[in-house]
Amino acid sequence: MSGTGSFSPEARAESIHRIDHEGFDVLVVGGGVMGCGITREATLRNYKTALVSRGDFASEANGHSFGLVRSGFDRLRRYGLRVGLRALREGRTLSSLAGHLFSPRFLLLVSQREDDLHSRAHRLGLLLCDLLSGSPASLRALGDGELGEAEPLLRLEGAERALLRHGYVVDGDRLSLSNARWAYAHGAAVANYVALVGFIKDGGRIVGAHLRDALTGERFGCRAKVVVNAAGQDWDDVRLLDDPSTSRRLRFTNASNLIVKRDRLPLSHTIVIEPKGGRSVATVPLGNCVAVGQADTGHVEDHGSTHASAPDVAHLLEVVNRHFPSSSLAMEDVLVSYPSSRPEMVGRSRKPRVATDHAILLSPSGLFSVVCGELLTYRATAEELMDMVSDVLHYGHGMRVSFLSGSSFEPLEGSFDEELRKSMLADMTKRGLEAGVADHLLSLYGSRYEEVLSISEADHQLREKMKPGLPHIWAEVPYSVTHECAVTLEDVMVRRLHLFVEDAEQGLDVASRVVETMAPLLGWDEGMKALQLSLYRRLVAESRP
Ligand SMILES: Cc1cc2nc3c(=O)[nH]c(=O)nc-3n(C[C@H](O)[C@H](O)[C@H](O)COP(=O)(O)OP(=O)(O)OC[C@H]3O[C@@H](n4cnc5c(N)ncnc54)[C@H](O)[C@@H]3O)c2cc1C
């Protein structure tokens, strides 16, 4: 079985060779959490599986998500019993299988006081959900004193109250990568920067796909019994490649996001502000920055624009300044502003249905298309899809198939329980690592932190922090290449180390050294080093307002 080496650029090259020369049971298109989750699910069922992604893993919707997951009660209220219960179950499953990536957190919710009966019913519902999801009974209104201690700069207005409640914060980038890495290590062929550009058909049925390596421009094909379209926002484009006469089923709601320095907005908690009659604004501490975002600010045609609109940015600043008057944030404080868009499924009725849960379509030529609007339910959606794919493999191809989903009990790599966490922290302290660095390594790599540290054994300079005030160490850069298949500077800065959003300089001051560290591992010459640097500098420049 292949995939025994580390998840490196060589693994990518070997995967491309296999995709070109071998036949597969399942070809998955899309390297977001959905595509990576499906690839793991298929591999767990012993199907010979390949995954291709046009960009890096988690480079699209995943990369824009704040990864906030509130309790299943929100789903229950908004989408009904079935979706709500599914979300509750998944919260429990994922926090036990991937605790380091899907970690329970307390979120501070600033919401409107409701009349007594409504308020009591709401609280009862939340407490029941906490009970069902096995999480601590967490919903609690904070008194003035407690709030002052928790978030000294936060001011409530009018009928607002502050509730401390249970939720999760998910690292969507790492969740995708973890699923992809696991699948590769267990026999799947996995390649980032490979796009589907067309389908191979036989008698009107899809029997494979035409692919293009985005790094070399080379074209090749992949034969597969089943092709799954998990292309996220490009879902319809892939469906149209299959059937140009089909109608688009997704439209996009806009979301606006901005990033400010944490010393300008010093928060300890993730805070969700629900203004009266308005949409929620979330503030999320990330390293030495804070991200501020608001979803569903309107519909967009172009989901590829690079900046949040000026009125949206002004509105976000206004909501934040009302609640944190001492910060007085101004346009000059905005380091980065970017829009993102979230797909909505257009149903058969005239009223569009928000795809907050998921949708699966099967085309007449046999293309499965799956879209999922929530990180929380990606695994359950992958399981449901693979049950349908298993039917096709069994009845259409006579294969022996499995309806048992190992993903509901097989932990993701790196996961750990509280006891193991304590012993890993003790181990890192003994080895001389600062507490902040140890916490950082555990939250990114879980029990794989050992692999990162082993890289620095030959060169102790790699144990040094990349810059003061941040917990990243230099060993993470070569590790991103040799164990996490980063092949560009952007992959490392944005999705492996998150310096793009967690560092006030967006890593520009360390970018040259990162390039020098990556170059020998990727065979970059001077020209390629300069190109990588200029592409990253351009990305940073474009992100600034
Ligand atoms: C602004 C925003 C905020 C969000 N906030 C939250 C949140 O707080 N909590 C939460 O649970 N969820 C949130 N979500 C939703 C969550 O991010 C998505 O549900 C999830 O990322 C969807 O994953 P996906 O794999 O379906 O799509 P994507 O992550 O978009 O992945 C699609 C992949 O398909 C690839 N692709 C596209 N076309 C091709 C092709 N032709 N060939 C090969 N590959 C192709 C792309 O390169 C990409 O890797 C948010 C989403 C957005 C946009």
Explain this structure.
This protein is α+β, with helices and mostly antiparallel strands and 545 residues long. The chain folds into 3 domains: 9-61 and 173-249 and 350-408, FAD/NAD(P)-binding domain (3-Layer(bba) Sandwich), CATH 3.50.50.60; 71-170 and 252-343, D-Amino Acid Oxidase, subunit A, domain 2 (D-Amino Acid Oxidase, Chain A, domain 2); 418-543, Helicase, Ruva Protein, domain 3. The protein has 19 helices and 18 strands. Strands 3, 4, 5, 6, 11, 12, 13, 14, 15 and 16 form a 10-stranded mixed sheet that branches. Strands 1, 2, 7, 8, 9, 10, 17 and 18 form an 8-stranded mixed sheet that branches. Strand 8 (194-202) and strand 9 form a beta hairpin. Helix 2 (33-44) packs parallel to helix 8, helix 12 crosses helix 13 (435-445) and helix 15 runs parallel beside helix 18. The protein starts with 8 loop residues before the first helix and ends with a helix. Mean pLDDT is 87; it is low at 349-355.
